[in-house]
Amino acid sequence: MNRRAALKQLSALTALSALGGAAWAQKAGQPFQTLATKVPTEVAGKIEVIEFFSYGCPHCNDFEPLLNNWTKTLPADVNFVKVPITFNRPEWTNLARIYYTLEAMGEAAKLGPAVFAAIHEQKRQLQKEDVLLEWAGSVTDSKRFSDTWKSFGVQSRVQRSNQIAAAYRVSGVPMMAVDGRFIVSASTAGSHEGMLKTVNELVARARSEKGKG
Fold it and tell me: Where does it sit, as one GO cellular component term (predicted)?
């Protein structure tokens, strides 16, 4: 996304989050919720799918293998975005910084599973900076990680993720959003598998509607 488009989206997100975000509506028996106000998406001409998550969330850890397999099958007209959630908690903010640090280094997809494993299997407290930097040195370039972790760019991305979460009124994770209009969770869809099935259906719906437009 170019700078002008990014600033335009950021301005729209700021305005929407200041108004309290978009209200949800869900019909009985429907496996998703619909936003009253559409949230701006990143890439024109593509169907945006967002996963809201946190490395510290055990349900996100369980969902990750399913999600990774699903992303391998995405068609070219889908723009998939991961957005780490902080819930304005310092420890979760640090976990969000891990994601954006790895993303900036081009290693988020490669090392994401290792972050989940370190937290949920090895019980490492990666939300603590000293523990994190020691761990990072065992999996990647420690100086590059440290410099990126402390960068203004990463801090800005975390702030932007908070605005996106506020616009969607995210209250739990994992949660997925489709085309800036639809919200899907295990609660609405019945299971993690149900989430992905519903997302696929909503992507097809968005594609059909764009084709008619």
Answer: periplasmic space
The pTM of the full predicted model, rounded to 2 decimals, is 0.87
* Percentage of residues in the chain having pLDDT higher than 70: 86
CA distance 23 to 25: 7
22-206 has CATH 3.90.930.12 classification: no
The pLDDT tens digits of the residues spanning 143-156 come to 999 999 999 999 99
**Given the DSSP bridges, would you call strands 33-35 and 24-25 parallel, antiparallel or unpaired?**
antiparallel
Question: Is residue 130 within 8 Å of 142, Cβ to Cβ?
Answer: no
Taking the CA atoms of residue 165, residue 169, residue 172 and residue 175 in that order, the dihedral angle to the nearest 10 degrees is -70
Contacts of 107 (CB under 8 A, 6+ apart): 140
Which residue is associated with the tokens 């305005």? 15
How far, in Å, CA of 56 to CA of 52, rounded? 12
What is the H or E stretch that residue 164 is in?
Answer: helix 152-168
pLDDT at residue 9 greater than cutoff 90? no
**How many degrees, rounded to 5, is the angle at CA 82 between CA 76 and CA 86?**
165
What is the gyration radius of the CA atoms in the chain, in angstroms?
Answer: 17
Tokens of 54: 């946190």
Distance CA 134, CA 126 (A): 9
The per-residue pLDDT for 73 is 94
